[in-house]
Design brief:
single chain; 416 residues; alpha/beta; two-stranded antiparallel ribbon; 12 helices; 13% strand
């Protein structure tokens, strides 16, 4: 019995050990299977991540390639346009030099007035007079001194020694929009005694030939469009006032060029940031051509109009209506005339003074802003404020600036 009992216990222990061994082996196999499965999943994830990364890198490479090709294409187009502009500038320069040479030779060969060039060699004092234009087709030729300066200016433009200037126009009221208004100009960068003579011509483009006015107008407009497109007109806080001159209406070429630029920059809505400073005398002189051009820029592209160079105010309300102007630029000396000039409230010939309003009241009621120029000291600024001005411009308000601090580099974007 003892022997049988020992054998039974030994058998039970052996069976238990076998059972424990089997369970241990099963557990080891399960752990190994789990380990193998985890390694397989990790390997699959790594392979998938590598595949995704490779695909992303391939897409990025393709996008980079497309971008480089687009940039190369844009650079090629810009280069071609720049070369075309340079060729046109050279042609203009050659034409001016040829005209100057012809005039010089004609003067050397004759002591009588040269009728075909409208130059009187016997009256040198007439050279100091500004150029006048009788019609679009008949223009007085500039004298040799002006011709030399024009050739010099064209050379400065070719050499990129011309910069755009900005004179601040200050609002006399609280403006929540935060818009900065600047009157633009042009200035030559020179060393020497020629600087004053050249910049005097550039300060009043009417002293230059219409051909050179067109070149300068295109250059100035291009700089402004570059500023606007870089800043994005929707978020731009800078608005620019551009002076309109004879060349705008001498023929249709400048307007056609401007239309082309506007179509290229349509998404930026540049017209909303531009105010056309239109001298009244030039507008009236070319009204037949000027009115439809200005109306198109106003209605189709949101350009605003500011009338300037105002000598008399009797017909001012009609001029504002014709040009749809919402701004007037008046010199501080003539500002009192706005309060002294009365117009009837109704079209009644027998209206007495009680039924009239002065021009300041009329403009205020019609949403027309008054810009007072020539503010050189605090006294003149006080006079402007007293007479109800909305904006002021002059050396006391702010000197002419050669650049805008917040503006970027304009050479990075091409417009032709």
């Amino acid at each position: 019995e003892a022997k049988d009992k020992a054998e039974a216990e030994a058998k039970a222990r052996a069976e238990q050990e076998a059972k424990d061994k089997a369970e241990a082996e099963a557990k080891a196999r399960a752990e190994q299977d789990a380990k193998d499965k985890a390694e397989a999943e990790a390997k699959a994830r790594a392979e998938q991540d590598a595949k995704d990364k490779a695909e992303a890198e391939a897409k990025a490479a393709i996008a980079a390639k497309d971008k480089i090709e687009a940039e190369l294409k844009a650079i090629t187009e810009a280069k071609e346009k720049a070369e075309a502009e340079m060729n046109a500038a050279r042609a203009t320069k050659d034409k001016l030099e040829a005209e100057l040479k012809a005039i010089t030779e004609a003067k050397a060969n004759s002591s009588t007035p040269i009728a075909e060039d409208n130059i009187q060699t016997t009256e040198p004092e007439s050279k100091a007079e500004p150029l006048t234009t009788e019609t679009d087709e008949t223009k007085t030729s500039p004298d040799s001194s002006t011709q030399n300066i024009e050739i010099h200016i064209q050379k400065l433009i070719d050499e990129k020694r011309i910069i755009q200037t900005y004179q601040p126009v200050m609002a006399m009221f609280d403006d929540d929009s935060g818009v900065n208004l600047y009157k633009t100009g042009i200035k030559a960068i020179l060393d020497g005694e020629d600087e004053d003579a050249v910049n005097e011509k550039l300060s009043d483009l009417s002293l230059l030939s219409v051909a050179l006015q067109k070149v300068i107008n295109e250059w100035s407009l291009r700089q402004i469009f570059l500023r606007i497109t870089e800043a994005d007109a929707e978020n731009s806080k800078n608005h620019f006032m551009i002076t309109v001159n004879e060349a705008w209406f001498s023929d249709i070429s400048l307007f056609n060029w401007l239309q082309k630029i506007l179509s290229q920059t349509k998404k930026y809505a540049p017209g909303k940031s531009i105010i056309l400073d239109v001298p009244v005398d030039i507008y009236k002189k070319h009204q037949k051509r000027a009115k439809p051009l200005i109306d198109t820029l106003h209605k189709s592209h949101d350009f605003r109009v500011c009338l300037s160079n105002i000598m008399e105010f009797e017909n001012m309300t009609m001029d504002c209506q014709l040009t749809q102007s919402k701004m007037l630029m008046v010199h501080v000396d003539k500002l009192p005339q706005l309060t002294e000039t009365f117009i009837p409230l109704e079209k009644d010939i027998d209206a007495d003074e009680d039924t009239k309003q002065n021009l300041i009241q009329y403009m205020e009621s019609n949403g027309i802003r008054v810009i007072t120029s020539g503010i050189e000291d605090a006294t003149l600024l006080t006079d402007a404020i007293t007479n109800g001005t909305d904006y002021a411009i002059g050396s006391f308000i702010g000197e002419v600036q050669n650049s805008l601090i917040e503006a970027g580099t304009v050479e990075s974007f091409d417009l032709s």
